[in-house]
Design brief:
The protein has 16 helices and no strands. The chain is an all-alpha fold. 42% of the residues are buried.
């Protein structure tokens, strides 16, 4: 699941639910735990930035901790080395989460996460929702309707955006609807790019009702051919995903530059993925559309055009105006 949000195919060598001490046999300190999470984040190649240099340095470790928590759980749900023990690994990971919220963390991810929770005042529910999403990946191969897929996205993607807002101290619930749409759009962009790869794992993240509407079934997808009907389906899905990006776009203007530019880069990278799919004629079976260095550079440049003119013409909104109870 998370590999689609962050676009990573590498297997993480750090996914170990039983890790308790560092190489010297000592309990992980706060700084060592954050360094561990940074290694997890930097060990994967991403289409979307994770705590880039545009994020204030004091906040980057908190983003690494949240990423490492979700990345490791996603490995348990997806990676082949956990076949047969996925459910038990996720259960153990969820127990570690609850320990962290009670100040009893030992695993380095949760030592860092416990500090993040305490210092940024994060609620437990988004983390629990993410764990529900990972568990759903173990039991559901395809969702019958768009509404059912949306329910999955509420657990699989929305919590990540909300946690990012909380880390930057944006707590106004009115921002959630924009964050939720932006996260759903990012997830869908990667689902559309990964149709072929997901078939290999017996997963289809396109609603069954959409396939039926365009005269396609699971067998047609497994044929791995960009037929006219499949192209029509992809055009429709991309149009809907672009609409979600537009629904989430106001968030870029409702936060200050310390978060706004990072979100703008994420927004532009997501749109670039959709552009890539269109540029190959929607044939995501022959080759997986990927963002190269030039694409990423263009995304950064486009993000700058979204943010910098506003900085010169208006005062960035304060966090206080978006704080909620």
């Amino acid at each position: 699941m998370l590999r689609r949000v962050f676009d990573t195919r590498a297997e993480s060598p750090l996914a170990n639910v039983d890790l308790r001490t560092d190489e010297a046999g000592q309990p992980y300190s706060r700084d060592a735990a954050f360094a561990y999470c940074e290694r997890v984040a930097r060990s994967h190649a991403e289409s979307f930035p994770i705590a880039s240099r545009f994020v204030p340095a004091p906040l980057r470790p908190y983003l690494w901790a949240v990423y490492a928590f979700a990345r490791t759980a996603d490995d348990f749900a997806d990676e082949k080395q956990y076949a047969g023990i996925r459910a038990s690994a996720l259960s153990s990971w969820e127990q570690e989460l609850e320990r962290a919220f009670h100040g009893e963390a030992q695993h380095p991810v949760f030592v860092a996460l416990q500090a993040t929770i305490d210092e940024r005042k994060l609620p437990v529910q988004p983390f629990r929702d993410l764990m529900t999403g990972f568990s759903m990946d173990l039991s559901v191969n395809q969702y019958p309707t768009w509404q059912a897929l949306q329910s999955y996205l509420q657990h699989a993607s929305h919590p990540l955006g909300r946690l990012m807002l909380y880390i930057f101290d944006y707590r106004d619930p009115s921002l959630h609807r924009f964050s939720d749409d932006l996260c759903s759009a990012l997830q869908m962009a990667n689902f559309l790019r990964d149709v072929g790869a997901d078939l290999a794992n017996d997963r289809i993240y396109l609603p069954e009702e959409d396939l039926c509407h365009f005269g396609l079934g699971a067998d047609a997808l497994h044929a791995r051919a960009a037929t006219p009907a499949f192209v029509d389906l992809m055009r429709y899905e991309i149009a809907r995903t672009r609409a979600m990006f537009e629904r989430g776009r106001p968030l870029l203007e409702k936060v200050g530059p310390e978060l706004g530019f990072e979100l703008s880069m994420i927004y532009c990278a997501g749109e670039a993925i959709l552009d890539k799919i269109e540029s190959v004629g929607y044939d995501v079976f022959s080759r997986r559309p990927q963002l190269n260095a030039a694409d990423k550079a263009r995304s950064v440049a486009r993000a700058a055009t979204l943010r910098w003119p506003r900085w010169s013409t208006r005062t960035p909104p304060s966090r206080a105006s978006h704080k909620g109870a």
